[in-house]
Amino acid sequence: LKRITAIAGGTWHSLALRSDKTVWGWGDNGFGQLGTGDGVKSLVPIQTKSLTGVIAIASGNYHSLALRDDSTVWAWGYGLANGKDVSTNLPAQIGGLSGVIAIAAGNTFSLALKSDGTVWAWGANNEGQLGNGAKTFTYTPVKVMNLSGITAIAAGAHHTLAIKTDSTIWSWGYNGNGGLGDGTEIDRYSPVKVVGVTRAVEVVAGFKYSIVKGHDGTTWAFGSNTTGQFGNGTLDDSSIPVKVNSPCGRETGAERLHEIEKISVFPNPSNNGEIFITGGNQIDEVEIINLNGQIVYKAKPNEAVIKVEQLEAGFYVVKISSREHSASTKLIISK
To answer: Which pTM was predicted?
Structure first.
């Protein structure tokens, strides 16, 4: 393959987009995900048939998507995710969509971002991954509810992320490990705001976890961390964003992690109207953020005792900055 402009990978198949706007695939083809008109796997790249003018591609578990230069979306492979009730081995246009500028593919569902900033979804919906407030699957695109002004989308296995024009992040779908970043582990059938990170420029969704790139070049992760997906030196899951260790700078990741681990918040849960911040060489800033992403308290430098009696009971994110480092932790306030 030469002159490749984009690539995408499914569970057992891969796609490549060439500069001539043709799509090529290789690997498993049991559900027709290579789009070659048969179900025969290929050990070398083979061209997807009946498809030209492609400007973007995406791969789900066993299905494939393409966005053409006329803003139409085409799909093939596994049934349901391809907009049909049966698997198909040739590309077919997804009806009811126009003005599409981006696509994404989850395990068995698909997404399209339109030029008007709305997001549309179809396929499996058992965990709310379509974001339309329901749990029923659909073969035809439905509009994600209560969401506008979107500039980017990403599909995980069973959840979705989106960035708005104000650089906030919104998520919906499966949340069993906290991969939606809203401070809970409750599946969401409509979009919720990711807490603790603002001014996002890029999002990526994996299997039960999410990655966000901030405007300042920092990287944040949330959700499942059972194999170290966060890159922060732990195996702990998190339902709020935690910063990925920097691979460069004046200190090692281990040193940075050690500094962060010195800082603690207690009591947590708090039911007496105050919390204590301890540890670290110097605490420069403490922010308490609610689940709507609003800063509800900002402490003074080295303010060790923080009065929280004015805050309502519920979940919050405490963001602590110490020297050039920062850490976030979940705070529970009970009354």
So the answer is: 0.77
